Amino acid sequence: MNRGGASCSSREAHRHPAAGSSRPWRRRSLSFRLLLAVAAALSTPSATVEGTEQVRFLLISSASERRVSYIPIQGEGPLTTHMDLRPLISVSRQEEQQKDKENEDEEPAAAQQQPDTKAPPFLAQPAGICVDKRAHRLYVAEPLSRMILWYGLAVKDGQLTADDGPHVAQDNVDARWVAVDGAGDLFWTDSDNNKIMKVSTACLSDSANASKQPCNATDVNGTAMELYSAPITNQVSEPAGVKADVNHVYWGNQVAGMQDGALIKGNKTTAGGLKVHTLANNTEKAIGVCVAPRHIFYTDGEYGRIYGVRKGGSAVTVVAQTGLSQPRGCTWDDDNTIFVADKGLGTVWSFAAGTSLAPRMLSKHLPDHSFPGALDVAHYAVEAPQSDSIITKTVKYVSSIFGGGWTK
């Protein structure tokens, strides 16, 4: 049929079909099929979509609430509105998982006469947290159970999920704050015994855990390394928050900060000699520490302030104080934003990391007291399957019905 040479009379016939023609019904049938296609496309999982996109999350811990939650972060830079707080790990969730596991692993009564004397690891009082982005692990300091636990992280349909852990990274340790560097080495502060500890990523591997090889601070093989301790190093005085970059480890001291140093920088390997340098001694009590490309930020446990100093040393600057109550842990998002947990207000703040030290504007991202006892924060970013828009999903689904011609 020559469509380009269609006559006027044939076009009129299309506009006004003869009586008894089935064309109107065919059109209705086609419209109905299109509606069904739209509905089906909307319900099609986005996991089948080609391509990936970076999704970002802010994780928050609370020892008093005994849980770790998260906030999805949309786009780049500081958040400007209150975001949705979602659960990740909690005591109630673990209790349900433990009951399910016990039901699945039920054995005859005779086999249960010799119970396991060692209790399973359990989230009881989550304190400091950090994320190993390469291994997709969340580390949680557990001072009550004297452990450092870890959970595997994954993203499904835009939601952050944790595996059925916890798994034990370190046992029989006094850890309240933890950090992980780009190589996967784990650091923690032992405030009770005035120590800065480190364990290599090799000791934290799945194979080491599976073989039950000890990776503890008390291990006679020395797999965990005591980097700094008092009284050998005076600049370790009930250490709190800790962070590490390529060459150094940084920590804040909760006691005698003006005498022994509030913010300390030390080499993290023995290659260059274990040397320390006091970056700040302006406050008696420094708690949270976070590392940006040029600056170190830390929170003041006495006056509710956030300070900043250059990595190589400089005058200390009050970065933020208005509105803060009890700022605690903080983290950098690998871009240009610093997030801070506020224990007193039960919320999270953020400010721009910037390229210079100057007072910053704060943004609040949770209503006051919506997350009581907010203690520490950690940032997690990962490449996940890209989500299609409604229009794109519809076109793709309709195209699959009609042989692909709709997308050509």
TrEMBL record:
Lineage: superkingdom: Eukaryota
Coiled-coil stretches noted in the UniProt entry, renumbered to this chain: none
Compositional bias annotation for Basic and acidic residues: 93-102
Family annotation (Gene3D superfamilies): 2.40.10.500, TolB, C-terminal domain
InterPro entries according to UniProt: 6-blade_b-propeller_TolB-like
Region (Disordered): 1-24, 93-122
Protein name per the record: SMP-30/Gluconolactonase/LRE-like region domain-containing protein
